[in-house]
Amino acid sequence: MIEIHTVNLSSIDLNLLVALDALISEVHVGRAARKIGLSQPAASHALKRLRDLVADPLLVRVGSRMELTPRAIALRESLAETLQRVQTLLVADSFEPGTTSRRFSILMQDHLAHLVVPALFKRVHAHAPGVRLDVLPWQSPASMKPERFRSIDLLISCSTNEIAGFQRETFFTDTEVTVVRKGYPSASRLKNLETFLNSRHVAVVGRGLTEDPVDSWLRQEGVARQIVLRVPSYLQALQAVAQADLVAFVPKRLAESLATPLSLAVLRPPIDPGEYLEYLFHPRRVAQDPASIWLRKLALDIGEHLGPTGSSSFQ
């Protein structure tokens, strides 16, 4: 018969859970102590009590460094959610935008940040001047470690895949367009598929990708375009197009926002790319948090004001 190990909840000091979270995230007793304002002996004592409590060493020395045991790794994500729930239980649900100094972290790609961040900052600052927004460098959710997920308040992506621990809402609709500089030779001929494919294209190959998603789609359609330049972002692609006789195939909303300042011509593609959705993701653990709800409403309002993609901007 398997012996079930039980814990007397009345014997647990909540400060031990805070110490456990710091020890697991830092994997170092000294750094964990500094993170939560303890002396190193006090942190070492807390680790000893935790080891006795869960009947596991949690951190073990391997050579010159410490490593987490499988039990500690298993506790990592659930512990963060548990602490959040405890905090929610003990702290009144109140949020005053005008007096808060809350800090929010947002993850999105550069071209989405170009469309969203200025408007979002303007709305946030108008109501909550003490709030700080941190826009994080883009990283695919599939490659992110659980501890980084814990720091994210909003994530914007066109991914149709579910993200563990996050809820998804429709943000806005977009499509792809052909973009060249104003004065590009024979721009009108790019409406012809053969001319379009044989033109000199700039491809956008983001971090973690091996090719531009546009080229994956074109290959499914049985065609391929001529790539002469690869860049890591849509913003760089449009800057290159503005200064050379190149063709870009980029999101329409971004192209429209930069058409005037960069003197670009936005053209209807010779092959219909259809439409796609951008989504707003937020952690389930803060679904009922008043501050998080407030930020989501501001962001969703921006998505609504972007309106339908339409076709009036084509030249």
What does this structure look like?
This protein is an alpha/beta fold and 315 residues long. The chain is 41% helix and 21% strand. The protein has eleven helices and eleven strands. The chain has helices spanning 14-26, 29-36, 40-54, 70-90, 110-127, 146-149, 193-198, 213-220, 234-243, 252-259, 290-306; strands at 59-62, 65-68, 103-107, 132-136, 154-157, 166-181, 200-204, 226-231, 247-251, 264-267, 275-283. The strands form two sheets. Strands 3, 4, 5, 6, 7, 8, 9, 10 and 11 form a nine-stranded mixed beta sheet that branches. The relative contact order is 0.13.
Rounded to the nearest angstrom, the radius of gyration is 25 Å
Helix content: 40-55%
- The assembly state of the depicted protein chains is single chain
| Global outline | elongated
Terminal Cα separation, in Å?
Answer: 76 Å
Which class of secondary structure composition applies to the elements?
alpha/beta
Average of the residue pLDDT scores: 88
Brief summary:
The chain has helices at 14-26, 29-36, 40-54, 70-90, 110-127, 146-149, 193-198, 213-220, 234-243, 252-259, 290-306, and strands at residues 59-62, 65-68, 103-107, 132-136, 154-157, 166-181, 200-204, 226-231, 247-251, 264-267, 275-283. It has 315 residues and is of the alpha/beta class.
What distinguishing features does this structure have?
315 residues, two-stranded antiparallel ribbon, 11 helices, 11 strands, elongated, disordered N terminus
